[in-house]
Amino acid sequence: MKIFFKFVSGLLIVLVSSQQPIVNQLEYPPGDTFKITCDVSRFANLKPAREIFSISLLRQLSTQTSFQNIAAYEPRAKQTMTTNIPSQWQVLYAGGEGFDNRNTIRLVVTVVDFQCADAGLYQCEIFIPSPLRHAYTIPVNITAKIEITQKDIYMTPQNEIIGEDIHSSVNTVGVEITMICSFTGPANLQAVWKRKKEGNEENYPYANNFINSKQVFSVISGCNTYDYASELKFTLEEKDNGTLYICVVMEDNNERSRKMFTIGVNPVTDSTTGKPGTDSAGSNVGAIVVGVLVVLVITVVLIYFFVIQKKKQIESSEASTSMKVEATEVW
Questions:
Q1: Rounded to whole angstroms, how far apart are CA atoms 72 and 83?
Q2: What pTM does this model have?
Q3: I want to staple 248 with a disulfide (CB 3.0 to 4.6 A). Which of 56, 67, 101, 192 is the partner?
Q4: Which regions span the lipid bilayer (predicted)?
Q5: Sign of CA pseudo-dihedral 111, 117, 122, 125
Q6: Cα–Cα distance measured from residue 261 to residue 173, given in angstroms and rounded to the nearest whole number
Q7: Beta strands 210-212 and 223-235, pairing class
Q8: How far apart are the C-alpha atoms of 303 and 297, rounded to whole Å?
Q9: Whole-number Cα distances in Å, 278 to 236, 237, 293, 298
Q10: Span 206-249, pLDDT tens digits
Q11: Is the distance from CB of 79 to CB of 61 less than 8 angstroms?
């Protein structure tokens, strides 16, 4: 009994594992081309039957409540049928001739220029005349994968680049810069700003410095597509020199894309020497000190000359008075 059970289990495993999917993958980008194949190898646990009367491909779109027959092949009657499929799609009807046609009958639909509107459930169906019955493959949900397109980070004002890195700019301390991150894709995308310096990457800490614009909706290749933009704005400091700024596009907490931009910062320079100088506050204090010293020197000099001149005037007056007294005594 145990041996028989193991044999049956092994046989079932072989039958299931031999079933082939009707498509190679379940997600395709708009505009892609792929094949949907219907033959007996796509059916699980198909009962023995020498003749297949017909084979069909069924589809149920998201807007439909039931499956619709979109392509069918009946080899005995030499009939083919296609309905409700785009004109650029191609249908191949192969094999199926004769009574023992089980392993030759085949229906292949080549999907050309896949659109989001084509997404839905697909399955194959065969009709066996003796005994009369239908068999179906397991429905597969073919979905449209909207690609995420991210542009390079745009910065303003953008000056000379750092070396040969076109994604960089060198500006001066105190300049307010704006970095813009733009991207296109499905709904529910999010921009996350990061920065990296000396090997350490972190989320940008000042949330008030960036603004996420409202999503702009459009339809591309039948797909609902959204345009996104995020701006990061701040005033440069010397410590920003050499910092790498990163805009990461996130979808359901998973990173899907990123772009980077490097900032170079020139220090404040002395206008007379062209060399890095102190900050403006320090320069103003120095100028005030020098001015005060000059005023003090001038004041001391004026006082000195005033005292000397006054002393000379007094001495001259006393000498004149003495001479007058002497002259009076002579007379």
A1: 9
A2: 0.60
A3: 192
A4: 285-307
A5: negative
A6: 18
A7: antiparallel
A8: 10
A9: 17, 14, 21, 28
A10: 999 999 998 898 887 778 899 999 999 999 999 999 999 999 99
A11: no
Q: Which two tokens stand for residue 204?
A: 């940008």
Between vectors from CA 175 to CA 172 and to CA 177, what angle results, nearest 5°? 115
Q: Which helix (H) or strand (E) is 235 found in, with range? A: strand 223-235
Is 249 within 8 Å of 257 (Cβ atoms)? Answer: yes
Distances (CA, A) of 54 to 81, 85, 176, 242, 313: 11, 19, 71, 69, 137
Q: How confident is the model at residue 307 (pLDDT cuts 50, 70, 90)?
A: low
- Phi/psi of residue 223, nearest 5 degrees: -105, 140
* Contact of 189 with 250, CB cutoff 8 Å: yes
φ, ψ for residue 263, nearest 5 deg: -105, 130
Tokens representing 30?
Answer: 């708009």
Which residues are paired to 35 by β-bridges? 110
Cβ atoms within 10 Å, residue 209? 14
Residue identified by tokens 């076109």 is 166
CA dist 131 and 210 (Å) reads: 70
Question: Rounded to whole angstroms, how far apart are CA atoms 157 and 170?
Answer: 10
Pair of tokens at residue 299: 């004041």
**Inter-residue contact 119 to 226 (CB < 8 Å):** no
Instruction: Tell me how far the alpha carbon of residue 84 is from its chain's centroid.
Output: 37
Concatenated DSSP letters of 88-105? T-EEEEE---SS--TTT-
- Pairing label, strands 140-144, 133-136: unpaired
Q: pLDDT digit string (tens) for 286-306? A: 556 566 677 777 777 677 667
Tokens of 192: 């996350």
What is the spatial distance between Cα 59 and Cα 57, in angstroms, rounded to a whole number?
7
- Token pair of 155 as six digits: 């910065």
pLDDT(326) > 80: no
Question: Which residue has 């309905």 as its token pair?
Answer: 83
User: In a 3-state reduction of DSSP, which class is residue 308?
Assistant: helix
